[in-house]
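Re: that backbone. Tokens:
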């Protein structure tokens, strides 16, 4: 159990909790929840609403016992059975409970995600809220998950989360799409589910660049899960668009594996996975944002996706699938373009449209920057959370 990293009563007191190696155990580690917990809690500290933040994980003999109970010959299925089991979630809740019980009177609790059940520890003695980028129902709808969740395990996980969500004072989501899932899939009262948004995970926001060029014909794609993010569809569409724009270049960032065999790669620069915590990688990524004319993410399935918002913060218009939360992030015709998932011809037409019209790129890029500053900062998220908590 990690000790709270920040302590002290403030004008408003919220104590944050994160748990499980699945998303992170240190609230301020840049790797925890892809950096979300760090940026969220740092902004809460800046706005003087954070009492502290704690994290934990099941360890020692308890962990070994749970591993034995969830064993499967397939390592991936074993991992799935371990983290999604009710036994693991209950054990993680017990690990975090001492820190909850030690909080002074008047401090509310904010848990990140639904892997543990702090309302069962609190028992109504203080308010408890949660913040989410997804839930189990959304996980089960993902046709591109690496391993399917067995029906019995899925039913148990859904029942666990349903009980948890019914006990929370209020649920905060990153998107309206996810908010709808909590209401429809878990039967939560709409008044108790609030979309507070999400922020881009940047140490400093990039400055405005009125001199930015949009005629470079360079396109940027960022996504670790290349297939689910629409990478194969993009390679085909780019090959078609490049017939009219032979000087166009597609930069692919994120995949840890080599380019797919047999895929059209003319004009494609495969940069692999870039780590923002490494100065060299961060500088390279920054250069790609500066030099690219627009961003593209034609995902086949995307519950949220923060990469387009980050691109918009760099004044890049974004071409994205017009589904899920992506349709909220990117406003079609104002900050980018929507395309139907999996449709190579439609995506190729959108690429051709922006490659051939740098004035349109500029117009959309300016709109993208404005929307990102208005809607995708952690300052705004924390203010939304505070208002929703009636603080």
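Recovered sequence:
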């Amino acid at each position: 159990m990690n000790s709270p990293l920040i302590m002290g009563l403030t004008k408003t007191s919220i104590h944050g909790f994160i748990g499980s190696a699945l998303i992170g155990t240190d609230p301020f580690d840049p790797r925890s929840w892809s950096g979300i917990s760090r940026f969220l809690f740092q902004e809460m500290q800046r706005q003087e609403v954070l009492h502290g933040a704690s994290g934990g994980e099941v360890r020692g003999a308890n962990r070994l016992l749970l591993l034995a109970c969830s064993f499967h010959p397939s390592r991936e299925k074993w991992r799935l059975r371990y983290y999604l089991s009710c036994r693991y979630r209950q054990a993680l809740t017990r690990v975090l409970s001492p820190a909850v019980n030690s909080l002074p009177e008047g401090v509310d609790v904010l848990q990140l995600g639904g892997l543990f059940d702090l309302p069962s520890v609190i028992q109504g003695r203080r308010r408890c809220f949660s913040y989410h980028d997804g839930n189990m129902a959304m996980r089960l709808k993902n046709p591109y998950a690496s391993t399917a969740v067995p029906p019995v395990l899925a039913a148990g996980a859904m029942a666990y989360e349903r009980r948890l969500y019914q006990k929370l004072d209020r649920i905060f989501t990153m998107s309206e799409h996810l908010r709808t899932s909590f209401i429809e899939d878990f039967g939560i009262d709409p008044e108790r589910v609030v979309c507070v948004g999400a922020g881009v995970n940047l140490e400093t926001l990039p400055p405005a660049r009125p001199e930015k060029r949009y005629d470079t014909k360079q396109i940027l794609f960022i996504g670790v899960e290349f297939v689910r993010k629409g990478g194969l569809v993009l390679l085909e569409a780019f090959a078609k668009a490049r017939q009219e724009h032979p000087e166009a270049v597609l930069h692919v960032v994120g995949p840890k594996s080599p380019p797919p065999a047999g895929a059209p790669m003319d004009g494609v620069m495969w940069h692999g996975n870039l780590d923002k915590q490494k100065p060299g990688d961060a500088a390279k990524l920054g250069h790609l944002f500066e030099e690219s004319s627009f961003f593209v993410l034609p995902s086949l399935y995307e519950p949220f996706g923060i990469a387009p918002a980050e691109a918009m913060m760099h004044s890049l218009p974004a071409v994205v699938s017009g589904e899920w939360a992506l349709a909220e992030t990117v406003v079609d015709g104002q900050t980018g373009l929507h395309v139907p998932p999996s449709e190579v011809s439609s995506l190729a037409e959108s690429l051709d449209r922006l490659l051939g019209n740098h004035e349109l790129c500029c117009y959309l890029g300016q709109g993208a920057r404005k929307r990102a500053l208005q809607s995708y900062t952690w300052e705004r998220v924390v203010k939304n959370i505070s208002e929703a908590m009636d603080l």
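DSSP finds 15 helices and twelve strands in the chain. The longest strand covers residues 50-56.
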